[in-house]
Amino acid sequence: MLKKITSTWHGFSTLQKILFIVGILLGFIAATLVVFELLSRVCPAYYPAVDVSCAELDEKYAPNGGEIPYFMQPQKQSLDEVLEDQIIYVPQEEIGTLNGITCGYYAYVSKDLPGPAKTYVSIHEAMHVLGEGSETQANLKAAKLAPFGMIVTVIHTALASFTRTPIQNWPCTLGRLWGTFKVYFLGNDWSGGDMTIF
What we know:
Strands 1-3-2 form a three-stranded mixed beta sheet, with helices on both faces. The chain is elongated, with a radius of gyration of 22 Å. The chain has two domains: 2-42; 54-185, no CATH class. It has helices spanning 2-11, 14-42, 54-61, 79-85, 115-129, 135-145, 147-163, 170-185, and strands spanning 87-90, 100-103, 106-110. The chain has 198 residues and is mainly α.
């Protein structure tokens, strides 16, 4: 049997061999994506619910308990101004499994993130403060300014997801990460899902 396969393989031209290998790789990638998509649809949301209260964060961490004096009302702001004045770093437990969250005038970012990830998430949240509603667009804009930070954020988020999840739930973790990837990189919305990762 092995002789027959070997002789058949040697009978292929170089182009046929390349096309065969590419076809196998594309088939593997397609099958993997189908599995991820199925897992993202059938797995229950086993992460703890994201129970983050912007009012509580504002009261606890924002200047003046989150009260925004009239002269500080949102106007045309620069990214640097938002990063300096409106991004507040908080302990991870204050924002659950999120890396950051925008609460109107202020945004809160986990101070426990690795340095490059903290920079990237800060820029991402600042984009929301500046009015960008789309997760994908905020992601792309932040990635242009901190590409390495985006990579670190993705790796950190994936590793954190697996370390806080029992091993028997890892297949669903892959599904949830795929769902999150679609929101942040492919333009899907959260329709029906909870914001558990980024």
